[in-house]
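Ticket #168: bound-state structure for zinc ion.
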Amino acid sequence: MAEALFEKSKRKKDIQCPRDKALLAKQHAGDAELDTCGKCGGTFFDSGELFKAFGIKADPSYWDRPETGGTVSNADIHCPSCETVMLLQDVKYEGEHVQIDRCGTCGAIWLDKGESDTILKIGEKMHPVLEAEKAKAQEELAKMGDVDFSSPGLIARFLGLFKKKKTE
Ligand SMILES: [Zn+2]
Ligand SMILES: [Zn+2]
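RESOLUTION: The complex was predicted; output attached.
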């Protein structure tokens, strides 16, 4: 465990802003350790860190959906973590629109200054949609007979059946 943490901080020691090459500074948000650029205000999120930093409404499961889907194209920046060319993804819902950069290889996400606010607004708007979907899934599961709802993994897997993959 301690070793894994050490590996992580070692790997992320010197990562640079993909926009202006400034060294990113570590910042704590929620349970996440984020890397933020003091120059342009962008923030780098490892896979899963959006959820850790801002809660479930910022998680890709909330905004990476058919309802919010826009186009995906190649971004003009490289992933600060693994160097892959990142993907530029439109996320929009009910008047909110943001273009985020995400890495198709390691799952990292780069948010320019202010983009996390829009992501959270979209997550907030998506909340009732997700709740309705979850209720429906539980109903369907209940029809199948005895199901243990205390297992969150089960519901997640079931919801996964409804989720369309856009990228790839
Ligand atoms: Zn920067
Ligand atoms: Zn990457």
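RESOLUTION NOTES: Confidence is low (pLDDT under 50) at residues 1-7.
TICKET STATUS: resolved
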